[in-house]
Amino acid sequence: MLGLSANLRYFLCCQSTDMRNGFDGLAGIVRNYLRKDPVSGDVFIFLNKTRTHIKLLYWDGDGFALFYKRLERGRYDRCTAVNELSKEIKREELLMLLEGLSYDDMRRKKRFKFG
User: Fold this and answer.
1) Is 103 left (phi over 0), alpha (psi -120 to 50) or beta?
2) CA dist., res. 59 & res. 77, Å (int)
3) Cys-Cys link to 14, which of 21, 79, 98, 101 (CB 3.0-4.6 A)?
């Protein structure tokens, strides 16, 4: 089970991804294209060219977990990072992305944050 914990780091791939890639193909993209370690425990997020499909790849300690969703209507928000391979996003941003909300249009209220 993939739990979207606040203790995890989330990386959104800024280039479109062929959704025919499975566990090994996506792990290869993480390692060779994003230059990150796919078994680090971070969650890697991939969108297809039309932004109607999303995959999340996560190493849970003894194997890869894959979450895959296809939208019947609408599109996921695109990565706004310029000239970057991936963008680290917060858990809240991922949840909003999955719900079809745009994080860039929202304003975050000031909160106390330890550390």
Assistant:
1) alpha
2) 25
3) 79
60 within some domain = yes
Q: How many separate domains does the chain show?
A: 1
CB atoms within 10 A of CB 10: 22
Task: Read off the pLDDT of residues 35-79 as tens digits, 9 standing for 90 and up.
Answer: 999 999 999 999 999 999 999 999 989 999 999 999 999 999 888
Give Cα 34 to chain centroid, integer Å.
12
Q: Is the Cβ–Cβ distance between 54 and 47 less than 8 Å?
A: yes
Of 14, 114, 18, 27, residue with least CA distance to 66:
27
CA 30 to chain centre: 11
Full residue range of the structural domain in which residue 48 is found:
10-99
Q: Distance of CA 13 to CAs 78, 104, 112, 113, Å?
A: 10, 17, 30, 27
In a domain, 106, yes or no: no
Rounded to the nearest 5°, which phi and psi values hold at 58?
Answer: -145, 135
